[in-house]
Write a structure and sequence with these properties.
The chain contains 13 helices and 13 strands. With 371 residues, it is α/β, with parallel strands linked by helices.
């Protein structure tokens, strides 16, 4: 075929018209949160149970962490299972069908498989037959990264409805002889439905950051790890290792930087925010960040006491509880901030919709024409 002649002829002109149409920018859309849900294991593990494991109890754990209990998955329970249950709740709240979903994103550090993705398993389980599916690996920052991806796909009109999930079975990554880490973590999942709308509101800004120089401060070696790294007897395959002091210092700074930067990029001040939902890592981190911002501690949501650190699941679980307990209401300005392995962090500002949106509100406007 003579490609040059084809490109200069009638067919080439038609092709250029099609490309011009395809390259025409679409009207930017709003990404509204319209559904939420959470799912947790039945087993509640109390601090006093650690007395038989690592010789510490509630009087040692709670003052250092703010945690009384956490949920622990039973044998056979997986991140996929809890992600699916949380997703089904969020779908019900949003009043949509699984077939309305265009994209499933799961933030997790504890997938069942390296591949297929947990998102693909969830997509199949809920019957989201028209959706793409992908996992996001950013440790405890994962949900913020996943929500940022959904926000930008919706904002540009690439997708209309996204299911964003954080799901973890962190109890299976723990060294249960290390009292400094094993007392911190729990299992569970949370999910949000995010939909495109021409009604102002929803996600209004986001910021993502990483400092890869601190990669070794919070690590779980797996099959692809360098051999020399695994020769270190303190690091075991599929077992978490954490430099607690360094991570705490990083986390406080990341929480402060993330919230301030995301608020500024939205044209907001801290005084404008009605609620901050941070990654639920340690109450001492939350307290120190509140003082450093400064921001009223009573306007920072914490459910760490009941669930411990559920990594990428902690923010959507906390959002769901904040809605259910009346702490988060339609029209509120909400700040989310995650921080964790990478070292990574990120923050998002949301004008909370808090209710399903009508079909008419989700229909994209006609594309803008560039002359």
């Amino acid at each position: 075929m003579d490609f040059k002649r084809n490109g200069n002829g009638h067919n080439g002109q038609a092709r250029r018209e099609r490309l011009r149409h395809a390259l025409t920018p679409r009207t930017l859309r709003y990404a509204q949160v319209t559904g939420w849900g959470m799912a947790l294991p039945d087993r509640i593990m109390h601090n006093d149970e650690f007395e038989k494991i690592v010789d510490v109890g509630d009087d040692w754990i709670y003052p250092r962490t703010g945690i009384h209990t956490r949920r622990i998955a039973a044998e056979g329970e997986t991140a996929t299972l809890f992600a699916t249950r949380a997703a089904q709740q969020a779908i019900t709240v949003a009043g949509i069908s699984p077939e309305d979903i265009d994209l499933v994103i799961v933030a997790t550090s504890t997938p069942e498989f390296i591949f297929p993705s947990t998102a693909s398993l969830v997509q199949g389980a809920i019957g989201a037959n028209k959706a793409g599916a992908v996992d996001v690996a950013a440790a405890c920052s994962g949900f913020v990264y996943a929500l940022d991806l959904a926000y930008n796909k919706i904002r540009t009109g690439s997708v209309n409805t996204a299911l964003v999930i954080g799901a973890e079975i962190f109890s299976r990554l723990l060294d249960w002889t290390d009292r400094k880490t094993c007392v911190l973590f729990g299992d569970g999942a949370g999910a949000l439905i995010v939909q495109g709308s021409d009604t102002p509101g929803g996600v209004i800004s986001s910021v993502l950051r990483s400092d890869g120089a601190g990669w070794d401060k919070l690590v779980v070696p797996t099959v692809g790890s360098r051999e020399s790294y695994l020769r270190d007897s303190t690091k075991k395959m599929h077992t978490m290792v954490m430099d607690g002091r360094s991570v705490k210092e990083f986390a406080i700074g990341a929480m402060v930087d993330g919230i301030k930067t995301a608020a500024e990029s939205a044209g907001l001040t801290l005084a404008d925010l009605d609620l901050i939902v941070p990654h639920q890592a340690n109450q001492r981190i939350i307290d120190a960040a509140a003082e450093a911002l400064p921001f009223p501690l009573e306007k920072i949501f914490s459910n760490l006491e009941h669930y411990g650190n559920t990594s990428a699941a902690s923010i959507p679980i906390a959002i769901t509880e904040a809605v259910q307990t009346g702490r988060l209401k339609p029209g509120d300005l909400l700040g989310l901030v995650g921080f964790g392995g990478g070292l990574s962090w990120g923050a998002i500002m949301i004008e909370w919709c808090g209710q399903p949106i009508t079909a008419a509100q989700t229909q994209p406007q006609a594309a803008l024409v560039m002359e």
